[in-house]
Amino acid sequence: MIKIKRKLLYSTILVICFVLIASYIKNLFTKNMKVKAMGNEHIPILMYHHVVKDPSKTNLITVTDKRFEEDMEYLKKNGYNTISFKELIDYKEGRAKLPGKPIIITFDDGYDNNYKYAYPILKKNNMKATIFVVGSRLGIIKYNNDPRYSYFSWEQAKEMFESGLVEIQPHTYDLHYYKESPNHGEGVLSKTKESKKSHYDRFTKDTDKIIKLIKEKVGSESYVYAYPYGKYNSTNEEVLKKLNFKVTLTTKSKYANISDGLYELKRINVPSNKKLKDLLF
């Protein structure tokens, strides 16, 4: 009787082990196949905002300089290659190939801490990034008397651009507002009861202004547009395509699927409470 019970116990243990091993192999195979199938048609575009020294100031859009450096080291150690949007456009238009495991690093708004803390780390590691600037705010210290909202200058923007590592691209000239007012909608959206023509003309005027400023102050063309708060509509897309923008970006936190083009691409927000390895496949 004891021998029978032992045999049943051993058999049960063997079955459990077999199931666990089979499950592990299946998950590993599925994950590898998923990554392989994605290839260069699914690219992670990372989205940062603030980079600070003080760990107590971190939140969903703010990381420390130490954390940012750890992220860059993680990417290098795991075979990722940072690319510019110019390289992505060239790839999609058949003029170039992409390196293995391409990834794009972005910053929104143009905060001075990007220049102070992130830019030196990018230079140290020879890694590329794109910063989307709110044109009307560059050079302003303590915007609305808030020390969190200080912006680098146009001279600093030019310095970063001329390094060959940083693209400077539009995040509106002066439409980066979360709440609607008589002068603007929520971000680049239309105002309540605003006609499509009025919205079209107003957004075109703002975009023309930031395009000219970036060209004049930095020396760069504008070809990528990041929507404030990730909010936009068909009128915004229509205007940007007419102005020859090649890429538009949202804030939806997923890999960017470039198989159907480069408009309305998703980005992966990098919060302080999640490790980068947990955000990437």
From TrEMBL:
Domain NodB homology: 101-281
CDD domains (alphabetical): CE4_Ecf1_like_5s
GO biological-process terms attached to the record: carbohydrate metabolic process
Chief location category: secreted
UniProt entry tagged with the keyword Metal-binding: no
Subcellular location: Secreted
Ranges annotated as spanning the membrane: 7-25
Domain of life where this protein originates: Bacteria
Single GO cellular component term: extracellular region
Keywords on record: Membrane, Signal, Transmembrane, Transmembrane helix
Any one GO MF annotation of this record: hydrolase activity, acting on carbon-nitrogen (but not peptide) bonds
PANTHER family in alphabetical order: POLY-BETA-1,6-N-ACETYL-D-GLUCOSAMINE N-DEACETYLASE (PTHR34216:SF3), PTHR34216
Name of the protein described by the UniProt record: Polysaccharide deacetylase
Lineage of producing organism: Bacteria, Bacillati, Bacillota, Tissierellia, Tissierellales
